[in-house]
Amino acid sequence: MVSAELEGVRAAVVEPPPRDPSRIARRLGLTGSLLMAVGALGAGALPVPNPLFGQRLLGLPSRNATLAIAVCYTGIIAMVLAWLWVGKMLRARGAVAPAPDRAQLARTAVLWSIPLAIAPPMFSRDVYSYLAQSAIVDRGFDPYVLGPAGALGVEDPLTRSIPTIWRDTPAPYGPLFLLLGRGVTAVAGNDIVLGVLVHRALALAGLAMIIWALPRLAARCGLDTGLALWLGAANPLVLFHLVSGIHNEALMIGLMLAGMEIGLRAGPHLLDRQLLVGSALVVGGSMVKLPAILVLGFLGIEIARRRGGRVRDVAVVAGVLTALTVVLYAIVSLVTGVGLGWATTLDTPALVRSGMSLFTDLGLLAGQVGILGGLGDHTDTVLAVARGIGLTGAAIGAGWLLLSVLRGRLDAISGMAAGMGVVVLFGPVVHPWYLLWAVIPLAATKGLPVYRRTILAASAVLALCVPPTGADFNFRVFQLPLAMLAGLLMLVVLLAFQRSRLVGQRGADIDALPGHAPAPTP
Fold first, then answer.
1. Looking at residues 8-19, what average pLDDT do you find?
2. What pTM did the predictor assign?
3. CB 69 within 8 A of CB 469
4. How far apart are CA 407 and CA 214, in angstroms?
5. What distance in Å separates the CA atoms of residue 139 and residue 130, rounded to the nearest whole number?
6. Is there a contact between 243 and 259 (Cβ–Cβ < 8 Å)?
7. pLDDT tens string 203-223
8. What is the reported pLDDT for 258?
9. Residue whose C-alpha is closest to residue 39's, from 62, 66, 78, 71
């Protein structure tokens, strides 16, 4: 009898119901974030010259770039594994015990982002282009005509940190972003470090709008808000490229999602205040990056469907929203003093032949086939044709989705997410952070249970694709694989240490049982 009771007590102690089984995964992610922040001091997208040179403590990581990159990759892989670990505990229909609840997920996302928010930029050097283009506007030049080198000079501290390919290219961003950038220049001047921090504050403001809008959009689709936040806001791509990389996608996506949520609250009346405010926010997102204007189409088509879905309804709503767009663009363009010249610079990113773009790859492949077939090198021409076909396909796909929303076969939020996905996948240039145009809205849609595994896998893989330096490794190709291997080994040691602690803790619980003799120490 005593033996049976002892066995029951032992089982209860050895396998107690976990109060918070996700804490280990969430702490692993925080450890990864801290390692990334430390590694960024030597392996981040640091300005030229590096302000950390000569610093006794903060300058140490920059003296051994390979080791700093290895530390960064240890943190990167740890964060991705922790995110997947927590995601595995969540269910497509919502978080159920023992998965973490929404409050725990929110706290975790904030804690993971804090080290990245105070560390140097990583994964991209675009923030230095933002600073230079804002300074061009502030000095009275047209950023849609002159590049940083032509307007500021090659030796200007704001120009020196920009990759060579972008020093002579005009700005491809909208007037609202340049207007905000002028405010950054007014605060920071030529102080690059302060300018980076102010731009990061703008990116965090965009992320705050995403965090505000995403659960509300998910609730409209009947989805668990905590799951939507975890997949959409705590996604490694978001933390790496919007928080750490400071891409202006944060503002673009934040404005378009907030505008969609507010606009969907409107009634059928065309001058409804919520419709006008929501539409204005979406237009503001398009004045950061133009593709956000597609969201205005899905918002308008939903309002037209509510009014009856007739051709007259579509025409009236389109007229009102078009007039609002024209007025807002005119006002912001006059305030910035740059006009609409950015319409001629939208193809600037296409200077890079992006390997992630399907139609760019097809164009390059066709060009190589022509060379091998003895037809000559017509790669540029074939590439232009292939990209044109892709843009045509994107327009057709977006039109079909709009029609589906009008007929009630698809809800506006799913249509918005799918439409942005079509624009990205069929576009001439695709970077990992471009996929956030679709990934973040998709986390709030009814398609989540179907595409959840795809989102998880794609986000995890793409989070590892971009090196933290935000630059290529020409003439030092050996450095990246060595650093990644060292980072992986450090992560294995970290996980083995954690596992040994867990095993030791469980053994201590067994030894503490009444009548149980402790095992001999080897």
1. 50
2. 0.84
3. yes
4. 25
5. 14
6. no
7. 999 999 998 998 899 888 887
8. 93
9. 71
